[in-house]
Amino acid sequence: MVVGAVAELDVRNAIVAIGNFDGVHRGHRALLERMRAWADEEDRAAAVVTFFPPAKVLFRGISYLSSREEKLELLAPFSPDAVAMIHFDREYARTDKSAFLAELAVLQPRAVVVGEDFRFGNRRAGGLDDLQHVPERLEVFGLRQDGETAISSSRIREHLLAGEIEAANRLLGEPYLALGEVVHGDHRGQSIGFPTANLDLPPAKALPLGVFAVQVDTPQGGFGGMANVGPRPSFPSGAPRLEAHLFDFNGDLYGARVTVRFLRRLRAQRRFADLAELTAQLQTDRVAALAALAEVAPSRATDASTR
After folding, report:
1. Cβ distance 144 to 170 under 8 Å?
2. What is the DSSP letter of 143?
3. By the 8 A CB rule, do 31 and 106 touch?
4. Nearest Cα residue to 177 out of 190, 188, 168
5. What residue ranges define each of the domains in the chain, with the CATH number in brackets?
6. Is the pLDDT of residue 264 over 60?
7. Residue 67 CB-half CA count within 13 A
8. Distance (Å, rounded) from C-alpha 161 to C-alpha 263?
9. Share of the chain above pLDDT 70, in %
10. pTM to 2 decimals?
11. DSSP readout, 122-142?
């Protein structure tokens, strides 16, 4: 998979999917599956044109579901031959719609697959009527429904903020993930027999608050575990911290990049009177997490399995 600016992609006459794809939820997946199937049918390249950060993050200051790196990981199962990750900033947002159309026209796309609500250009002036003149064919996807409500990144974000990870995962189509580098923490967990991997994540990353059963992909393999997500005591108004305890793991992860996948919420965060009370609760959480892993992802309950 080649990643670069639109003009740098060496694909012509490809089947191109366009969108923000924040979180790559079930609606996005349907569109991307169509891109892949169409490309296979006609023996053509498949390409994705996407943006980071999403416009809502830039203009409203809300959190995003997927970082650049996370989005590439989520796009990988659809085997795009190339991905254009357009840096969306205020300068780019002010460009005329014709600039995006000219950029896309360089690819000479055989077809473009896009959602019905896609807009582009200054003040969102560009729409499907403009876009249809660039490819040979334009295929428009309607919004996918979950019950009576459309699946959207905004709806998933609301579930995450409420700690409703199972509801968020249902809309995503797979467990919500966070990818980051393991950094040194305060080492309190290690002192009571529950060492944790502390992930360095961007402040704008959306995270569910609470204690969760998780699966963690590391350079050493895949491990079941439990994770605590919440504000740091010294910085209660700052970005939440994610720290994961991996079951039966022995090794050093400092500096490694790992992926944490949230499977089930075990409880809300709470304060403890002393370390003894905290340790007792962590033992209870471990039992609950193992039970959840055995039910949701049986092969992830211990480090005996890898991806």
Report:
1. no
2. P
3. no
4. 168
5. 2-150 (3.40.50.620), 175-300 (2.40.30.30)
6. yes
7. 14
8. 15
9. 91
10. 0.90
11. GGG-B-HHHHTTSSSEEEEEP
